[in-house]
Amino acid sequence: MEYFDFSGKLKTRLLIGIAIGVISMILTFVAGGELAAARFWSNFLHNAVFFTGISFAAMFAVAVWITSWSGWFVMSKRVFESMAQFIGIGAIMMLIIAIGNYVGYHHLYHWADAEAVARDKVLQGKSPFLNNNFYLIATVVFLGVLYYIAKRVHALSVEEDEHGGPGDFSFQYKIRKYAAGYLPLTGVASAILIWLWLMSVDAHWYSTLYAWYAASSWWVTMIAFGILLILYLKSRGGLPNVNLDVIHDMGKFLFGFSIFWTYLWFDQFMLIWYGNVGEETVYFHTRLNEYPILFWAILILNFPIPFLVLMSNTNKRKVGTMVFTAIAVIIGHWLDFFLMVKPGTRHTAMELMAEHGGAEAGHEAAAHASHFALGFNLPGFLEIGTFIGFLSLFLYVTFTVLAKARLEPVHDPYIEEAKHHHV
User: Fold this and answer.
1) 2 within a domain of the structure (yes/no)
2) In a designed cystine with 113, which of 106, 180, 243, 326 is the match (CB 3.0 to 4.6 A)?
3) What pLDDT shows up at residue 230?
């Protein structure tokens, strides 16, 4: 299969999945009770950040492999180039949230409420960074530039297929310039955007490891998606020259970076626990005591499963095992981002309810804060439906881009190296 045929049942199923997501979002907004708006916006932020991060992690992978003169990934590079194009959709989604901050939807970020900032010295101290203007500008500028680079790299890669030839490195030189620029830019951009989008949900808290932690979660999830997409395309007759050695290498990435994510998870938790500083421990105290099922489920899905399963070289070559492990990792890191977002947005909703609703609302907010709430303490059907919608949209964009170019590049100068890759 030279070109991927994105039509028929697959396209219909993904469109149905997108519809399920839209319906779930609508039901969340109209039927969520007192916390309806907070649940709606936190679901939107959770999934928008999750899939946007995966897309620019995919472009980061392409940039790393290109600038390091790697040849082994060439046969499967269309998969990662295509995933990276979702950055454009992610930019639109995050722009919606940024505009929401301006028009009065303060259910995500306490610092977006001017009245709350006026009464809070901590928020006042952080206001040069945590403000609506910088949130909007950073989101638009960084995602705009990152998307432009991802678009140009893919366009040059496709153009190389059409106009390149054996031993022609002219397109590679152009691609490498964009890739080399992407690496430092995404290093800065990812940290700033993670602080703005995620860490500022808990506006009074901070961690110097948080950006590394969230970015590593994006990276591991991107690898898992890459494995699933490669195996799916091979099952449809595509990527015939992508052999089990490539899958084995992707398994090593999944294994190694799952350990790296666990190191950051433990390091952040242990140092904050050991330091026992109230401003820092409140983050983990809340999650460990009020969200214990999620707290431990995330660790189990993201460390013991990939570690024990992929420790064996043989398992990295078994399709069924790789599919199971990749799915477990994706679910685990989706839950990880759920736990990053939900406690802070729930706390913000309670604070705003108390601040703007008078004494009675304050008592009601205090009562709600200690109760189990589906959609906050654990994902409900509406959260799962929203995830299906975003996942379907992500795959729809990826497959649409995949269908517009050859699955296997024919004029990449490293094509022969890729065909004969072995470990």
Assistant:
1) no
2) 106
3) 96
Any idea which residue has 């505009």 for tokens? 99
Q: Are 386 and 42 in contact, with CB atoms under 8 Å apart?
A: no
Contacts of 347 (CB under 8 A, 6+ apart): 110, 202, 286, 369
* Selection from 242, 331, 215, 335 nearest residue 1 by Cα: 242
Task: Kindly state whether residue 117 falls inside one of the protein's structural domains.
Answer: yes
Identify the CA nearest to 298 among candidates 284, 311, 314, 318. 284
Q: What is the model's pLDDT at position 371?
A: 75
Question: Is there a contact between 212 and 268 (Cβ–Cβ < 8 Å)?
Answer: no
The alpha helices in 239-311, defined as continuous H runs, are 244-275, 278-290, 292-302, 304-310
Separation CA 153–CA 177 (nearest Å): 9
d(CA 151, CA 155): 6
CA 82 to CA 286: how far, in whole Å? 38
Q: What is the pLDDT of residue 368?
A: 58
Instruction: Using the structure block, give the residue that is written with the tokens 């039509």.
Output: 7
Distances (CA, A) of 298 to 17, 261, 291, 415: 25, 11, 11, 39
Alpha-carbon separation of residue 77 from 207, 245, 334, 397, 402 (angstroms) = 35, 15, 24, 16, 10
| Tokens linked to 371 | 């109760």
Single out the residue of 295, 331, 344 nearest to residue 42, CA to CA: 344
- Summarised one tens digit per residue, pLDDT across range 190-236 is 999 999 999 999 999 999 999 999 999 999 999 999 999 999 999 99
Structure tokens at 85: 């194009």
Output the six-digit token pair for 49.
């950040």
pLDDT beneath 70: ranges in the chain = 1, 32-34, 106, 355-370
Is residue 4 a part of any domain in this protein? no
Partners of residue 406 on adjacent β-strands = 3
Query: What's residue 333's pLDDT?
Result: 98
Boundaries of domain holding 408: 9-419
Taking the C-alpha atoms of residue 221 and residue 54, their distance in angstroms, rounded to an integer, is 7
Distances (CA, A) of 300 to 85, 90, 264, 269, 423: 31, 29, 15, 15, 30
Backbone angles phi, psi at 109, to 5 degrees: -125, 120
306 located within any domain:
yes
Whole-angstrom distance, CA of residue 299 vs CA of residue 199: 20
